[in-house]
Specification:
Layout (H helix, E strand, L loop, with lengths): L4 E8 L6 E11 L3 E8 L7 H4 L2 E4 L11 E4 L4 E4 H4 L4 E5 L2 H12 L2
Antiparallel strand pairs: 1-2, 1-7, 2-3, 3-5, 3-6, 4-5
């Protein structure tokens, strides 16, 4: 696992009990944490403020995703390696063109 990998991991909901397995983008790793951004397919029904944080993945098939998806750049989430590393399933990797566009998107927000 490395930066720009798209992986699947169980993520707990922040506002209610439970959670679900979801795709995330690995943005950084260190000895203690795996830092990720959530990936979602839900865009159209979100408010303009939320949509402003969503980066469209143009090459979603190449990233191993099943449908058009968006990276939520609003908050980097740290996952404890000791807790999550064995639960992670590799899906794919963010295409180079999307990597460059994501950096530009974040810088221009």
């Amino acid at each position: 696992m490395k930066s720009n990998d798209v992986v699947s991991v169980y993520i707990a909901y922040s506002d209610i009990h439970g959670g679900k397995r979801r795709p995330v983008l690995v943005v950084k790793l260190d000895e203690k944490y795996i830092y990720v951004l959530r990936i979602t397919t839900k865009f159209a029904n979100k408010s303009p403020q939320i949509q402003a944080n969503y980066f469209k993945i143009d090459n979603w098939r190449e990233a191993g995703l099943n449908q058009l998806s968006y990276i939520d750049v609003g908050e980097v989430e740290p996952l404890l390696r000791s807790k999550f590393e064995n639960q992670i399933t590799s899906i794919g990797s963010l295409h180079q063109a999307d990597r460059v566009a994501l950096i530009e998107f974040i810088q221009n927000r």
